[in-house]
């Protein structure tokens, strides 16, 4: 099959409209066959009068929108040429019929493919939102991206664009992670050859990992001992949510969804059963085995009984389906935790996530790594090992302060 060529045609039908203007079109034709059956025309959407069209140089002249029109025409030519290159590269051939089909049939650009993957995905809303944000960044870098654009140089330039946007290395890494996912999906669906994956050669730096703040046991005890006046009971509830996270390792998304119905009282113990919001995994915890107390009840058990009594007094028989920490948002809790930490004379930056890192760090040297991995619902053991390293660091720092 011969190569397809492109040229600009003005007023092909030799007829002006009521505004004395005619359409500018892109003519696509086979280089060796130029009869009607081997030609297709694509509109640019631009109409100008005969005196505004330079036939020799194929451009708009002497028009108020001259620059805009010429840019739009050249952009349409470029997009059509890229589409041809893209189809030919992927299928080894490209006919005029292939070129004429719209995106909803046989041809998708990379951006359209990625959007389709998001739309058809059953991933969590937060994941899809993050992927949408990545596509928005990619579109701001290049308004249209074809599969044939995906090479090392393109990804390298996009990486530079992200860095010049003053994004953190972690954010840049996440954007590349999303694009890499779409590229891998395209390879799986035979829209891209595996050796054409630009991320085979382009490696993304995640940067220096952020220091994970955590509270040691004595600092958690400082929070436990805080007393709040009646008018500040809202602070006590936020403190208790944070403590429950320190005792169980639950994420805020799970803590905020805790109901009395998630707890089961048995002889000498209370167990917690729930499905994680983030991972959809089921978790069952024997609270009596965590952070044991001299009272005979563990610290998380005592918190449960405290809120069970409170909810029963307010709601009676309907309390079973009430949230322990209803109405608390992550942002609000993080603001108030700064005040709570200051009152407890804790100099560290405390957030709801610090409760989880505190649990992981304090438990890391007490139980096997595989058990901690399951408790924290990590998908990779490498994530759990971060807490092992933090725990070792805490021990070493404590030993270094000993006066021998």
Overall description:
This protein has helices spanning 66-91, 96-100, 110-119, 125-141, 152-164, 169-188, 217-224, 233-248, 252-255, 299-315, 330-343, 352-364, 369-376, 381-400, and strands at 4-10, 22-30, 39-48, 53-54, 59-60, 263-266, 269-275, 282-286. The chain is mainly alpha-helical and 404 residues long. The protein folds into three domains: 4-100, no CATH class; 110-200; 217-400, Orthogonal Bundle (hpI Integrase, Chain A), CATH 1.10.443.10. A three-stranded antiparallel beta sheet has the order 1-2-3. α3 packs antiparallel against α4. The model has no long low-confidence stretch (mean pLDDT 87).
Features:
single chain, 404 residues, mainly alpha, hpI Integrase, Chain A, 3 domains, 3-stranded antiparallel β-sheet, 47% helix
Residue share in β-strands: 5-15%
CATH superfamily of the largest domain: Intergrase catalytic core
Tell me the radius of gyration. 31 Å
Q: Please give the CATH architecture of the largest domain.
A: Orthogonal Bundle
Report the order of strands and helices: EEEEEHHHHHHHHHEEEHHHHH
What is the 3D form?
A: elongated
